[in-house]
Amino acid sequence: MKTKNLVRRLQHGFSLIEMMIAVAVMAIVSAGILDQMDAAQQRNYSEQLKLDNFQEARDFVDQFFRDINQVGYPNSRLVDNTSILWVPALGPPKTTYTWASPYINKGT
Questions:
Q1: Taking the mean position of all CA atoms in its chain, how far away is CA 14?
Q2: pLDDT per residue as tens digits for the range 46-59
Q3: 49: which residues sit within 8 A by CB, 6+ positions away?
Q4: Do residues 86 and 79 lie in contact, with contact meaning Cβ atoms separated by under 8 Å?
Q5: Can you tell me whether residue 2 is helix, strand or coil?
Q6: Is 71 left (phi over 0), alpha (psi -120 to 50) or beta?
Q7: Host H or E run for residue 65
Q8: 86 CB contacts (<8 Å, ≥6 apart)?
Q9: Which segments in the chain show pLDDT lower than 50?
């Protein structure tokens, strides 16, 4: 009977110190994991911001080149290039062009 009480007293569970140590270890591991997750989220945010800025710059350059391509001389299908005054090197500078279609400058 004495041995049965002795065995039961030695096997009744974890002590408070053992539980506190286990909780402290779990807290340290959890803190490390959360710190790494926070760093990964910050990296993801900064990379997404860089990607968005780069895409916006690319869109700006594309629009810039589209605008540049539309500036300058009118399309050759819209201009009467049989006129000698159309060629800038041969004639005096003109501010208006001779249009091939009478409907282009109808209102002016």
A1: 54
A2: 999 999 999 999 99
A3: none
A4: yes
A5: helix
A6: beta
A7: helix 16-70
A8: 79, 80, 97, 98
A9: 108
**Structure tokens, 10:** 């030695």
Residue written as token pair 């001779």: 98
Inter-residue contact 18 to 25 (CB < 8 Å)? no
Residues 99 and 105 sit within 8 Å (Cβ to Cβ): yes
Token couple for 108: 């002016």
Q: What pLDDT is recorded for position 82? A: 65
Give the angle subtended at the CA of 71 by the CAs of 69 and 73, to the nearest 5°: 105
Give the separation between CA 64 and CA 40, rounded to whole angstroms: 36
The single-letter code of the amino acid at 86 is W
Each domain of the chain, given as residue ranges in start order, spans 2-72, 74-108
Q: What is the pLDDT of residue 69?
A: 77
Enter the pTM of the model: 0.45
